[in-house]
Write a structure and sequence with these properties.
Elements (H helix, E strand, L loop, with lengths): L4 E6 L7 E4 L11 E6 L2 E8 L20 E2 L7 H13 L4 H8 L13 E5 L9 H10 L3 E2 L1 H8 L3 H9 L3 E5 L20 H16 L3 E7 L5 H14 L3 E5 L6 H12 L4 E3 L5 H13 L4 E4 L11 E7 L16 H12 L2 E6 L4 H8 L4 E5 L10 E6 L13 H12 L3 E5 L8 E4 L16 E3 L4 E3 L6 E2 L14 E4 L3 H11 L5 E4 L7 H12 L5 E4 L12 E6 L13 H13 L10 E6 L5 H8 L2 H15 L5 E10 L2 H13 L7 E14 L2 E11 L4 H10 L8 E6 L5
Parallel strand pairs: 9-14, 9-15, 10-12, 10-13, 11-12, 13-14, 16-26, 17-24, 17-25, 23-24, 25-26
Antiparallel strand pairs: 1-2, 1-4, 3-4, 3-5, 6-7, 6-8, 18-22, 19-20, 20-21, 27-29, 27-30, 28-29
Helix pairs in contact: 1-2, 1-10, 3-4, 4-5, 6-7, 15-16
The structure holds adenosine-5'-diphosphate and zinc ion (ZN).
Adenosine-5'-diphosphate binds next to α7.
Length: 723
């Protein structure tokens, strides 16, 4: 290898690796993080073995530019670089885009001059515009750069500076942080049941074995999966190695931190999008140095440069939010398993409702399985019954059937808590004019504008477009003719209040629980029993443990089954089983009422009868017949641009160029599931391939030979979540 020359993958997804000269006295080994010149600028990047990554442009030695500097940071390990290569290859993404996740968009790199952060002073000026007042409320106790506070408050930086001028916000010097305290594996270990003990022992052994070992921790809701994998973390801590815990939802972080702290004495290091720049930098460095022993985070924590990783846990491993739908379209569950492979360590996938793909891996003997078939401490599984909305419908203009209302009344009378689940934010999913039939649609997306009464506006759930609540129909100008169609959680909350005026309700959606602090506050109020009835979306279906919650009502079990996607039944089953799993987790028995128009649907039957294995077997069979995952593979090619004609034309051109390959079929182009999104028209080609076919290689060659107009984006979604 030529030590005077280095191939560098720069942090710019538009660029492939470039070669540089290593000046005298500098060493730039593979993995080193370096600063390199690019045109008039300088950009960070990582040194790569030339034989492992082809360069965009071969340049002779005499024309090379000098590297500027090598960062005083640990080099990226070979195992991580292999993971980056694999991810880029498998998901057909630019390696630099994956590298960016490892380096956290370089935010970790700027040690920079002194950083000035700002926070609220607590001083409220006499006259505050509504926008400024709302910004202050959103910022709360938080501290950060002007840019960060602006993002948190969803206002321009000018608003933050304005608040500074009137004395409502002030600059603060950022203190040098103490090191992260180490979790203590022996702080407060639980007494495990015999079953839990067996599973925990097997996991601890796997940690000490230091070999690749994917394992499904398949335990019913409330069986103590968290307590069990905590023992694996304890084993990794005793072994001096790091653990990564991936959670599907940032709202789950807060309860996790609490439980972790109770077990290990101190909180783990949290990694999520809500971190301030300085916190992010500090966490990144502690992860790279090995100081951060346990890291809990959303999927982006997966690519960080752990110095000595010993264990990966993917909690609620079936969750669809592990699938990234933008940028590098990877599935964090699958990449976690690959990381375990490259780093030779166990990967625990914990779930009460594992994905069909994961079950299949277990059946094939590729993943081990540990089962916890009973709830901890003798708590019973809840009793699940279907409520037939055809036979016993709610009164006109209402959504809760008489039996569910009765059960709510009984629950309240006993001083217990109830949860109503409806996976729809806002008041009503559709607003239309009774007079002319006009429907309010988003100008940027193929989606209805959703009425939100709490914030008094209509909102698009895809691009965030908002409009004030209309008084008159914009088409026919008729006043008082607008009607809200169908229920959202806010409308159910109104119905509950009308039925039980004394009930204390809480709406739990991403609108109300948009930060870890809000989530913590909600948990606190539930635990203090300041809430009687929760009305929530999928955000409340997972993870939470409220012992006094005994009744769960599913407002519309049919909602998830529409759409005709092959995964619909599985997804619907998982969601209802998870929300049902919130009921009766303490010593009081739980009850679940599922409202449906079709009590004989396989999903409902499986939930009511408890024949989960039968349901999975039937679903697996239909996947096998369709050649759907895990038996065959799909890849979506999504073509988008602001111009409809150009989008359609490019999609057709790509479709016509599809190669004839044995075992592969191409469907479409057709409008993508969201035909318009954020102002971009979207067409999709769906590629279906036999399992054994290297479909990525085929697509790479196919698209590589084509050109399309600037402004048209072509993205490949390998293993799409919906098919
Ligand atoms: P799961 O993740 O499987 O739904 P959890 O880990 O949340 O289950 O456990 C459910 C509840 O039971 C939690 O409050 C947990 O602290 C408690 N629990 C589970 N196992 C034990 C144990 N061995 N000792 C004490 N409490 C336990
Ligand atoms: Zn929109």
């Amino acid at each position: 290898m030529n030590r005077n020359r280095a191939r560098v993958l720069l942090l710019n997804p538009a660029l492939g690796p470039l070669d540089y000269r290593v000046p005298q006295g500098m060493t730039a080994e593979p993995g080193a993080i370096v600063l390199a010149p690019l045109g008039p600028r300088q950009l960070a990047g990582v040194v790569w073995e030339p034989e492992r990554m082809a360069s965009d442009a071969e340049v002779g030695d005499n024309r090379l530019r000098n590297l500027v500097a090598v960062y005083d940071l640990p080099p990226l390990k070979d195992s991580l670089r292999r993971l980056i290569e694999w991810t880029a290859d498998y998901y057909l993404a630019p390696p630099a885009a994956v590298l960016r996740m490892a380096l956290a968009s370089a935010s970790a790199l700027d040690g920079g001059p002194t950083i000035v952060e700002y926070r609220a002073t607590g001083h409220l000026p006499d006259r505050l515009t509504p926008q400024r007042a709302q910004a202050l409320e959103r910022i709360g106790e938080r501290q950060g750069l002007v840019r960060e506070l602006a993002t948190i408050a969803d206002v321009s930086e000018g608003v933050i500076r304005g608040l500074c001028k009137v004395g409502a916000i002030e600059p603060v010097t950022v203190a040098v942080d103490d090191p992260y305290p180490e979790p203590d594996p022996d702080h407060d270990p639980p007494d495990l049941s015999a079953e839990q003990q067996a599973a925990a022992g097997a996991l601890a052994d796997a940690v000490l074995a230091r070999t690749f070992h994917p394992v499904l921790l398949d335990g019913v809701t409330g069986s103590g999966k968290t307590e069990v994998y905590f023992e694996a973390i304890a084993a990794a801590l005793r072994d001096g190695r790091q653990t990564l815990v991936l959670l599907p939802e940032i709202a789950l972080t807060e309860p996790f931190l609490k439980r972790f702290t109770a077990r290990f004495g101190v909180a783990p290091v949290a990694w999520h999008s809500d971190l301030r720049q300085s916190q992010r930098r500090r966490a990144w460095r502690a992860i790279a140095s090995g100081e951060a022993k346990v890291v809990v985070g959303a999927r982006s924590a997966l690519f960080l440069p752990y110095r000595e990783l010993g264990l990966i846990v993917v909690d609620e491993a079936h969750e669809s939010s592990f699938k990234q739908e933008e940028g590098v379209m990877y599935h964090a569950r699958d990449v976690a398993v690959m990381r375990g492979h490259f780093e030779q360590l166990p990967v625990i996938l914990a779930s009460a409702t594992p994905a069909i793909e994961t079950r299949h891996q277990v059946e094939q003997g590729r993943y081990a399985e540990l089962k916890l078939p009973a709830r901890f401490g003798g708590a019973q599984m809840p009793d699940i019954a279907a409520l037939d909305l055809v036979a016993d419908p709610p009164p006109r203009g209402r959504w809760l059937a008489p039996k569910l209302v009765e059960a709510l009344g009984e629950t309240m009378a006993r001083g217990e808590q109830a949860l109503l689940f409806l996976n729809r934010r806002g008041y009503a999913p559709l607003t239309l004019c009774r007079h002319c039939g006009h429907r309010f649609q988003c100008p940027n997306c193929t989606a209805w504008m959703v009425e939100h009464r709490l914030t008094q506006r209509l909102q698009c759930h895809h691009c965030g477009h908002i409009m004030p609540p209309p008084r008159a129909c914009p088409e026919c100008k008729e006043e008082d003719a607008l009607v809200a169609c169908g229920p959202g959680v806010e409308r159910i909350a109104d119905e509950v209040t009308a039925l039980f005026p004394e009930a204390r309700t809480a709406i739990v959606t991403s609108d109300t629980l948009w930060s870890p602090a809000r989530a913590a506050e909600f948990v606190g109020r539930m635990e203090a029993r300041d809430i009687d009835i929760v009305i929530g979306t999928q955000l409340v279906t997972k993870g939470y443990h409220f012992p006094n919650l005994t009744l769960v009502g599913v407002v519309d079990a049919d909602l998830g089954l529409s759409g005709g996607d092959l995964r619909a039944a599985e997804r619907s089953f998982q969601q209802i089983a998870q929300v049902a799993g919130r009921a009766g987790r303490g010593d009081k028995p739980g009850r679940v009422l599922v409202q449906t128009h079709d009590p004989s649907a396989p999903v409902i039957h499986a939930l009511v009868s408890g024949d989960v294995d039968g349901f999975y077997a039937a679903e697996t069979d239909s996947r096998r017949e369709a050649g759907a995952p895990p038996f065959g593979r799909f890849a979506g090619i999504i073509i988008s641009s602001e111009n409809l004609a150009e989008t359609v034309e490019t999609a057709r051109m790509i479709g016509r160029a599809a190669p004839q390959v044995e075992g592969m079929m191409v469907f479409g182009p057709a409008p993508a599931p969201l035909a318009m999104l954020r102002g971009r028209h979207r067409q999709r080609l769906l590629v279906h391939a036999r399992r054994a076919l290297d479909v990525q290689a085929v697509i790479r060659e196919w698209l590589g030979a084509l050109e399309w107009p600037r402004g048209v984006r072509v993205a490949v979604d390998v293993d799409p979540y919906s098919f």
